[in-house]
Amino acid sequence: MNIEEKIVNVITQILTDKYGITADEGMVMIEIPKDNGNGDYSTNIAMRLTKVLKRRPQEIAEEVREELLKRLDFVDDIQIAGPGFINFWLRKDAMANIINTVIEKGDAYGHSDAGKGLKVLEEYVSANPTGPLHCGHARGACWGDSVARIMNAAGYECTREYYINDAGAQMLNLGKSLLGRYRELFGLDFEMPEDGYYGPDVIEIAKEIKEKDGEKYLNMPKEEAIEELREVGRELELNRIKKDLAYYRCSFDSWISEKWILSEGLVEDSIEKMKKMGLLYEKDGALWFESSKYGDDKDRVLVKSDGYYTYLTPDIANHIHKFDRGYELLVNIWGADHHGYIARMKAAMEALGYPRDNLQVDLCQMVRMIEDGKEVKMSKRTGNAITLRELIDDIGIDCARYFFLSKALDTHLDFDLTLARTQSNDNPVYYVQYAYARICSVLRQAPNGFHVQDFYGLLNDPKEIDLLKYISTFTDVVADCAINRTPNKICNYVQKLATYFHSFYGACKINDVNAPELSNERLALCEATRITLKNALNLLGVGAPEVMENKENNE
RNA sequence: GUCCAUGUAGCUCAGCUGGAUAGAGCAUCCGCCUUCUAAGCGGACGGUCGGGAGUUCGAAUCUCUCCAUGGACGCCA
Q1: Whole-number Å distance between alpha carbons of A325 and A472
Q2: pTM
Q3: Are A443 and A527 in contact (CB under 8 A)?
Q4: What does the alpha-carbon distance between residue A144 and residue A487 come to, in Å, rounded to a whole number?
Q5: Whose C1' is closest to the CA of A283: which nucleotide?
Q6: Is ipTM over 0.95?
Q7: What burial letters (b/e) apply to A82-120, b meaning 16+ CB within 10 Å?
Q8: Which residue is the nearest neighbor of B23, CA to C1'?
């Protein structure tokens, strides 16, 4: 148990003993004041009690303070300040206990059971297998991946799933486009659909098919060829997507396809279910879902008058299937263009009896690529949208992921390619990685390594205390980021942790032959920092290099 | 028109489940390498938190309203 938790527990106990109040979770809050003059920790509990007790906050604070002084053995002083804050100053050695906690837990430092094993299914990327992933997908991809890493660290059981949209008109279009490109390779007359796929990937795949199958598709009826090429194209495009995602360090536990859902009869089942529940009606030859009764703007068509399903219909079956598999919380990361779609899916889930909030949709806003202050819409090489692969070949995986993850998902993102390319202090990802490499260097240079001690009594420089305190908040930060699905806050954490370390490094000589005891304690602090930083970077899927290449060599 | 975001320093953004004097990076300026990685550190400058009203011990944070920007509003996917 860390110091914050201890304080929270004692305060909670005091509320019960003294005022007969059972504190809800989140009632007692402990924070680290921005200003060191306000103590090492602080709580606003006295102010929060004013409404309940109908008394002045200062009076309450004074009473709580007296109780705290009796019950806490690791505090040096407690004072009341301002409108009723209770501020704590800790004994100098109390803070340093975090070092051994971190070292003992190692890779697991930062983990918690905040999620209480809740089974979560996170669906993300889910791009149609009709072409390569582009920069917009790149944002949602690393975001979803990082959210899953964070949730799993915080005690959720998060499964990552990719919904392959492979049953619609888009796929037919791919088949047609492939046939066109394929015939082109033989020098035959060919036609490309007006809204076909003109990217280089289709030409490359057509070549692959030609090499493998020769003239096979020339010797069959056109419709048949399109159908077969659609299937072959789906596999090859999907393999490319899988490869890109893996390279980008985005992993998936499950790939589920729209076609599979259809072939299993899940769509008929869900329509049948909704019919029985009286949620559907027929009008103008189509089958409608009365979603407007569940918060949607208007009702939605499930089966068109031509007999085909709308996009929504198999996706409802998909979501039912998720709940049926025992997932308690569904998280979807959707492009902002799917905004209007949220209300209908939530309506469908609610109508079917699933609590509305068990489906959470996080929207990924648009990404604009900026180069030298101007928007670049197209890749110079291909003339098409810039692909994920091009982006990471250009700036590197660490950099791409960090840039996307550092901004809240629902804000428009201007991605500064020029900045991302700079290997200098302008570039925030290097700042953090440099701190990590620096720590490793310091640890390497310790003449005899270091050993863990039972107590660390010599760490009392303000820079050391700041660093210790900040390390101790990591577990709470991870839990908070998991609950709110905000990897960008891990980026903030990592920046700040690096700053505290650099600052400590500048102020304190770590390897000092004239002060071996102090050196040992400082090295232990370095090790705790290193572990924390590495774990944090791992949650982002960003590398922690032990050596930073020299800047000049990178020109 | 309806719905949803967003609006914070010159720029890019944190902070938003109400807390103390609103933060960081970049840019600008001033210091610090004979010393463990200067891709670093310390400091200065920079603000009507889009405008207005309200809620209360307290508002960048919550409510209302107005303004601005972006997106979504299909028997497309």
Answers
A1: 37
A2: 0.94
A3: yes
A4: 9
A5: B75
A6: no
A7: eebbbbbebebebbbbbbbebeeeeeebbbbebbeeeeb
A8: A34
Distance A9 CA to B7 C1' (A): 40
Residue type, A120: V
Q: Under a CB-based contact definition with an 8 Å cutoff, are residues A42 and A88 in contact?
A: yes
Name the burial class of residue A192, with classes exposed (0-12), middle (13-18) and buried (19+) by CB atoms within 10 angstroms of its CB: middle
Q: How confident is the model at residue A424 (pLDDT cuts 50, 70, 90)?
A: low
Query: Closest nucleotide (CA of A38 to C1')?
Result: B20
Q: Max alpha carbon distance in chain A (Å)?
A: 91
Q: Which among A34, A33, A60, A43 is positioned nearest to A5, based on CA atoms?
A: A43
Find the DSSP H helices in A158-265: 169-185, 200-213, 222-247, 258-263
Residues A50, A64: contact at Cβ < 8 Å?
no
CB A429 within 8 A of CB A473: no
Tell which strand B nucleotides have any atom below 7 Å from a protein Cβ.
Answer: 2-7, 12-15, 17, 19-27, 35-42, 57-58, 70-77
CB atoms within 10 A of CB A506: 8
Tell me, in Å, how far CA of A348 is from C1' of B52?
40
pLDDT of residue A295: 84
Q: pLDDT band for position A551 (50/70/90)? A: low
User: What residue has its CA nearest to the C1' of B32?
Assistant: A506
